[in-house]
Each structure stands twice: as structure tokens, then as C-alpha cells.
Input
Amino acid sequence: MYIGIDVHKSSCYITALNGKGELLWGREVETKDRGWTEEIDRESRIAMESGTFSKPLYNELKERGFDLLMAHPAKLRLIAESSKKTDR
Output
């Protein structure tokens, strides 16, 4: 499973894809909510954009043993400027 997290001050949008890139689920949760982590196994790969509110979440998930990737915002420029981009 692949997880993408868009982290904001009060909420996060989390999207889960299977190995074929098919959407499994997506939802908005409060930034402090960690209940969704019970729905994924430790083999899942998680990616999130680096930002003010993502570091605490990153640290907590890393401590729990998740495989994480923190992406640098400047390196994501092509995605951010794409006409196909949505926050979801």
C-alpha cells in the first residue's frame, strides 16, 4: 500500500493506493488524529511534503516503524504547477 499525506495545521488529507496505483481510500482527518494508522500495515510506504506541520507527524510515524519519505517542496514544483494537480 502507498500512502500520501497532505499535512496542514488543523487537518490532513490522506490517500491510499494499492500496488497498481488504484485508489483504495482517501479521507480528511484532524492533524492530531492517528486512528487511520490502524488501517495500514507496517509494509506501507508513506510520503508527505515537508512543512511546518509535517515534522511532528513524520517523527511519530517513524518511531512506530513506518517506511516514510519526506519530500522537499521545491522539488515538487512540477506536480504543484501541473494542471492535473488537486490536493486530493
Observations:
- The helical segments are 54-63, 77-80.
- The chain has two helices and five strands.
- Residues 14 and 27 are 5 Å apart (CA to CA).
- The chain has a mean pLDDT of 85.
